[in-house]
Amino acid sequence: MKLELLASFFLLTTCFTAFSQEKQDTAVADKGLIKVSVMYPYAEGKTFNMEYYVTKHMPMVAAFLGANLVKYTIEKGLASGIPNQPLPFMAIGTFYVKSLSDYQAAIAPHGDAIRADFQNYTNIIPIILVSEVVN
Amino acid sequence: MKLELLASFFLLTTCFTAFSQEKQDTAVADKGLIKVSVMYPYAEGKTFNMEYYVTKHMPMVAAFLGANLVKYTIEKGLASGIPNQPLPFMAIGTFYVKSLSDYQAAIAPHGDAIRADFQNYTNIIPIILVSEVVN
To answer: Where would one find the signal peptide in this protein (chains A, B) (predicted)?
Structure first.
């Protein structure tokens, strides 16, 4: 019986240890990753179909990236944070990857397909920022 | 002895359930949050002291936000993702908050102190994007 109690205690300890480790990993998980942010500037007459972007375009590109892709995010621009300034970006799609060169190698053969899909959801020419998560 | 085995099994199941729940929470944790992204455009002659920004400015602003702040991130611009294009942004600091109005109310009384601190790390006038995490 002592053995079983010990086993229970061991399992419980393992559980809590794994749990707190997981929480810690979450907090610092992005640090050091490379972000490729595809930013769609707002301007008069520009359109952006968020539903197509979320359900079709981003999953298509994400599928090209394999295990190098840690996660991707999509955000919808709401306003400028400075009063009386225009909205800077209508939308931003961001790929968090481990390696920029692996990202570039994976995307290169699909560049034409990705660009051809733009017209299905927007008439904006995006800017692309490559950055590193420092904190 | 049967009881202890049962208890061990229960603990193990609880552990795995809690663990997988945590992983799921991590993946979708940001969805629906408001991002306030302070973006520092690159241009010839512009400077940005990342060390001061990471150790002094961002922690100061974060401390004003209280429980409304879920997390904040800092990224360092590396390059444009489009060949032969200039770097779009030297740095971006982002606050993930639950409520935009609570953010604005918390920041308002400290606006002068925040702006006065800019000169300690940069000569860039930032643009600010308010956006919603949709995915």
So the answer is: 1-20
Residue with tokens 């079709």: A56
For tokens 């925040």, name the residue: B114
Half-sphere exposure of residue B134, counting CA atoms within 13 Å on the CB side? 18
- Could you tell me if B6 lies within 8 Å of chain A, comparing CB atoms? no
Q: Which of B63, B120, B40, B100 is nearest to A81 (CA)?
A: B100
Closest CA–CA distance from residue A39 to any residue of chain B (Å): 10
Q: What is the ipTM of this complex?
A: 0.81
Q: Look up the pTM and report it.
A: 0.82
- Summarised one tens digit per residue, pLDDT across range A46-84 is 999 999 999 999 999 999 999 999 999 999 999 999 999
Give the C-alpha separation, B41 to B89, whole Å. Answer: 4
Residue A38, amino acid: V
Element (H, E) at B39: strand B34-41
Element (H, E) at B37: strand B34-41
Distances (CA, A) of B86 to A101, B33, B44, B49, B78: 19, 31, 10, 20, 10
Residue of B26, B81, B128 with shortest CB distance to A128? B81
- Could you give phi then psi for residue B125, rounded to 5 degrees? -90, 115
